[in-house]
Amino acid sequence: MGRGPGENRPRQSRSRRSGHLRPGQDQTGGRSRRRSARQGRSRRPVTDWQHLLAEVPRADFIPDDIWDAQLRPISRRTNPAEWEKLVADNSFVITQVNNGEGGEPRFASSSCSMPSVVAEMLDALDLQPDHHVLEIGTGTGWNAALLSRRAASVVSVEVDPAIAEQARQNLERTGHDVTVVTGDGLQGFAERSPYDRVISTAAVREVVPPAWFEQTKAGGVLVTPWGTDWLNGVLLTLRVDPTRAVADGRFSGDIAFMRIRSQRATLFSWQPSEAEIADADVSKSQSHGGDFDRIFNPRRGGFALGARLQSMYAWIDWDAEGERRHVVELDDGATKSFARVHADLTSSKPWTVRQLGPRRLWDEVEAAYDWWHDNGEPGMDRFGMSCTPFTQWLWLDTDENIVRELTRFDPQPKRG
């Protein structure tokens, strides 16, 4: 699975800009540098898994040819010192670009996560020695190796045949008993279900695949990176309720991962021509300089806005018009709706907004911002998610206070 149809590929005008990102940009996105910098900050101390991270060196699982956060190639053969430094650091390592097909421009298609992030996710899993585990996204096999040191059994599903085969070799060479299956991780692996624990090493877009919690035992735990079109960068931990057919959980952390491969096409958005933007409707925002961080920072209003807003990407071009004068672009390719906001943080004056298409995207952002304010400006820790085989929804404080219904699943597939 590649980048998606040609019309959904990144716009060249955007990809050339420096300092450009959307809120919660994924950790190997290439178009953003702020996410990479933020991931370099220290996280809470690694405790429960610290000794296992030391006992299972990730260098044993990293290929000779890798890429750094800027998608710059680093070869172990020609530059061993830099290779060793990147692998030893608390950094993610890109292990495949362009789905292994080469070509330009480069985009990250597989990686090995930061050790601190790996430990954070494994801590959330609450793994016990008698547990049977399903992992979605084998990658290099390092995470599966760590799981196998503690769990009774581990099944890992990898969509890319070449990556799956290399992971099998890595695990066999290092003496780790893991069953690696080549297949679509969205379907889980029913043959060995149910599992006590399910963990994904790739982010899902809003909806958790029903197969994952359907293949989890009652009382079991499911951990996955999670995001919306607006925001990609949190950890979702669900527990399957033993008394009813539902999985409930809450959000935490500052964790951004590449999307599940079949969902990556949604990351490449749409932009009208400059002539169309010039002819767009012009208005003034209700927001001003002091609101910018509150709208876009995930630790302030950004997560809540992401919970409210549907099918909307936000791109920020930092200092595009001078220091602390940013340009924000919003788009929804499905409806061909677009907004451009000239956000001057040096002034208390309203911002200039241009909008076109059937959706007034910036109006929706400001409505979501007002909702966040009117509800007491809740932080991420007050939000949760519930999943059944037929519907999933985001909630605030309790699962009865629905913020947004995400989707419904047809229990009887249509015959075609």
TrEMBL record:
CDD domains in UniProt: AdoMet_MTases
Segments of this protein annotated with the region Disordered: 1-48
A GO MF term: protein-L-isoaspartate (D-aspartate) O-methyltransferase activity
Domain Ribosomal RNA adenine methylase transferase N-terminal: 117-261
Major location (coarse): cytoplasm
Enzyme class: transferase
EC number(s) reported in the record: 2.1.1.77
Claim: Cytoplasm is one of the keywords in the record: yes
Composition bias, Basic and acidic residues: 1-10
Localization terms from the record: Cytoplasm
GO terms under cellular component: cytoplasm
Compositional bias ranges of the Basic residues kind: 11-20, 31-44
Keywords for this protein: Cytoplasm, Methyltransferase, S-adenosyl-L-methionine, Transferase
InterPro entries: PCMT (IPR000682), rRNA_Ade_methylase_Trfase_N (IPR020598), SAM-dependent_MTases_sf (IPR029063)
Family: Belongs to the methyltransferase superfamily. L-isoaspartyl/D-aspartyl protein methyltransferase family.
Protein's UniProt name: Protein-L-isoaspartate O-methyltransferase
Species of origin: Thermocrispum agreste
